Amino acid sequence: KINGGPGTLDRLLQHKARRRQSLGLSAGGASPRDWEMHVLLAPYLKGRGQTRGYNLLTVQLESDGFPGREGSNSLARTFKALHSSENCEFAALHPSQHWQDLTDIAIPGRYEVPLTIQPMFIGALWTFFLGTRHLEYFDRSKLGKLEAFDLEWKDDGGLFVRISPDITEAAGPEVEAEMVRLTGAFRSALRDE
Hints:
Elements (H helix, E strand, L loop, with lengths): L7 H7 L8 E7 L5 E7 L2 E2 L4 E2 L4 E6 L6 H15 L7 E4 L2 H8 L23 E4 L1 H4 L4 H4 L6 E4 L5 E4 L10 H17 L4
Antiparallel strand pairs: 1-2, 2-5, 3-4, 6-7, 7-9, 8-9
């Protein structure tokens, strides 16, 4: 464990992780508004050219910095620009408390059974991205019939989906119904393998 404070970056760069051990990092701050970031890096197997497990980045921030539809548009544009099949298998942008409600196994239904890998693609969220390797779980001919507020097949073969124009509507009943509908469409497109 490496504690924060002056020289943290230098200590992180000098840290030698044990062989085949994941490395976790948490950070946070209050400028320009409250935020938290958590990173989990799986061990890299040099001989295989892959990780043993998956890497996970979670960023939590207050949505008041992205007011109205223009704020949501800005957030979605940034999200879309950050993710590509080259650097990402799955990414999602959704209000944290509602995500927790959807994934709470004490509330049966909705997102009780993930579409692919927990905690990755549990179901359709406000905005999400699927990379080409993650799309291998699905029959692409069926995915070609999907409809959403904003759906874009990126040049690298990845898929960007946005459910509604405003992130503040994501926990509302109309948007949740659309998320559940789209999750059903993805579930119907899963390969039988």
